[in-house]
Each structure stands twice: as C-alpha cells, then as structure tokens.
Design brief:
Layout: H1 2-6, H2 14-28, E1 31-35, H3 37-43, H4 46-51, E2 60-66, E3 77-87, H5 107-122, E4 128-137, E5 149-151, E6 157-159, H6 167-180, E7 185-190, H7 194-200, E8 205-209, H8 212-223, E9 229-231, E10 249-250, H9 259-268, E11 276-280, E12 286-287, E13 297-298, H10 303-311
Parallel strand pairs: 3-4, 3-7, 6-10, 7-11, 8-9
Antiparallel strand pairs: 1-2, 2-4, 5-6, 8-11, 12-13
Helix pairs in contact: 2-5, 5-10, 6-9, 8-10
C-alpha cells in the first residue's frame, strides 16, 4: 500500500492498479475480475465513467474475491476503495500548490489491495469482496462539466456542481456493484475530502456510518495497529445540502460546511440500508514526516485496520 501510494502517477495508472490486483490474485489464490470501460458502460456506471471523461487513460473497476466462508457465511463483507490515480480537480481545477501529491488520491484503493494481500496470506474464515473504482480526474476536452447531470448505476441522477468532488461519484457506482453482488456489509475507504484534514489534521481518519456496531468494530481494529479514527456525525440535516432542483442529488453539499459529513451522506444514499462504514483518510494517507507506525510519504493507512477487522470477525 505504501509503495503504490508513492508511485508517480504516470506509472501508477488505473491499468497498473488493475494489474497489481491480478498479480496478487495469482500469488494468493484469489479471484480477480477487471471491468474495463466497455463493461462499465454495459452495467450503467454513469457516475464513475463521467469522472474519467477528461483523461486519455481508460478507467476500470477492479473486483477481487476471497472465499473463506467454509460454507457458513452466505454473503461476504465488501471493501470498496477509491482509486483516483491523479486528481487535478477536473474543470473545478485545484491550485498548483501541492498538486503533485494528488498521486496519493488512490490511497484507499491501495489499502484495499494490501488488505486483500494479507487476507490471501492468512486465509481467515470470512469471505471478502473488494471493489476498487479507478480513473484519473483530468480537465481534458471531454471532461465532466459543472452543471452536468449523471445517471448512476442504481438509477439515481446526480447534478454535478463541483468536478473536484469526484471520489464520491466513483464510489457510488462501486458501492452499488458490491450490493448487487449480494454483500452483507460495506466498508469504503477513500481520500475523500479536504474538510477532514481541516477537522482532524493528519492525526486521525474520519469515520462515519449507518451501523454503530460496525463503526465501533473498525475503530477498535485500528487501535490495535496504530491507526486512529474519530467518528463524525451523519445528521439528517446534511441531506438538505444535497438537494437538487433538476436531479435526485447534487454531488457536493453546502460549500465550506461539514464537508466530510456531507460527502458521507451522499454515499449513504447508495448503500440501500446495508450496514456501512465510511473511512475518510485524506489527512493520514500521506505524511510529510514519519510518525509512530506511519511513515513519510504514502502511509498505507487503512490496510492494517481492514485486515484486522476481517481477522477479528
């Protein structure tokens, strides 16, 4: 996970991430399926596909499966990772300061792949489905516009009011895919918002969710391996900021207000009532200096927590 987070974005592309999954699957006897752009189109992944429109690099959806149920567990746990291999912000362009670090916007995907490596090595009696949505967010001539309306895989329409709120768009379709595969519970992990950095700095990840038992279990799993989480609220009022006059949802809520919770509330709209936890690792996925268990650069944050959660299930 650390190595992937540190790789330059011209090397660690969506195609490269997909190949890492295939290689891991061969080594640890997992199943890997790569959904390419044409497959995503057939599945109606309009939200995820729209993010990649401005890039010459094709998007993909990486699916990995581990079956450790031993005939007892009917439906698996799902890990869903954000794999934006470079985030320019799209037409809602980021400032130049620090943009070179936006290669780590796939840290959630890296954590999921690394957790699957651990699971493949240690073979717990739990089944896990991993879904990684991967693309670049670039301001090319075909790029997503502010004002566009997208149709997601589950049929909900989304008005785009900020192309730099792209992670939630790709995760929405990835979550829907996981649910249609018949999972029991969902944990998504993403470098999702700058707001979580403002709230928690680079000391802890934000965690939100629909199931308190699941949230508490993830927090406890993190404590055993030096990965700290702090729970943020999902008040129903945050949904008000996502209302659109022309679609089911806006992709970005009230500007500058409760940004992390607003983003999580958007994702909740796609979880279909499943037990779900959302890990926002934007602050801790990359550090400028080493601290305790977390190294300088790409930290691999989340891989240990996810693996511990499965091993303790």
């Amino acid at each position: 996970a650390k190595d992937l987070g540190n790789l330059p974005p011209n090397i660690c592309t969506p195609t490269y991430l997909a190949q890492q999954a295939v290689d891991l699957a061969k080594t640890y006897k997992l199943k890997a399926t790569i959904l390419e752009q044409k497959d995503m189109e057939k599945l109606g992944m309009g939200a995820a596909l729209a993010v990649g429109q401005g890039s010459l690099t094709p998007p993909c959806m990486v699916v990995m499966e581990y079956d450790g149920s031993d005939g007892k567990q009917k439906r698996p746990l799902a890990f869903v990772g954000k794999g934006i291999t470079f985030d320019s912000g799209g037409l809602s362009l980021k400032t130049a300061v620090g943009m070179e670090h936006m290669k780590y916007d796939m840290a959630g995907a890296a954590a999921v792949l690394a957790a699957m490596q651990v699971i493949g090595q240690l073979k717990p009696n739990v089944s896990v489905l991993a879904v990684v949505a991967s693309t670049e967010n670039m301001p090319g001539s075909a790029a997503l516009h502010p004002g566009d309306v997208l149709k997601s895989m589950n049929g909900k329409t989304i008005e785009v009011n900020n192309t730099d709120a792209e992670g939630r768009l790709i995760l929405a379709d990835a979550i829907t895919y996981a649910i249609r595969e018949g999972v029991d519970e969902l944990i998504d992990i993403a470098t999702l918002t700058g707001a979580v950095v403002s709230a928690l700095g680079r000391v802890a990840a934000g965690i939100m969710g629909s199931d308190q038992t699941l949230v508490d279990s993830v927090i406890a799993s993190g404590k055993t391996c030096g990965e700290q989480f702090w729970q943020l609220p999902l008040f129903v009022e945050y949904k008000e900021g996502l209302k659109s006059d022309i679609a089911d949802l806006k992709n970005a809520g009230s500007r500058g207000e409760a940004g992390s919770s607003s983003a999580a509330m958007f994702l909740k709209e796609f979880t279909e009532g499943k037990p779900w936890a959302h890990l926002d690792i934007a602050g801790v996925g990359w550090l400028d200096r080493e601290r305790d268990e977390l190294c300088k650069g790409g930290t691999g944050f989340g891989a240990r927590t996810l693996a511990n959660y499965v091993l303790n299930s």
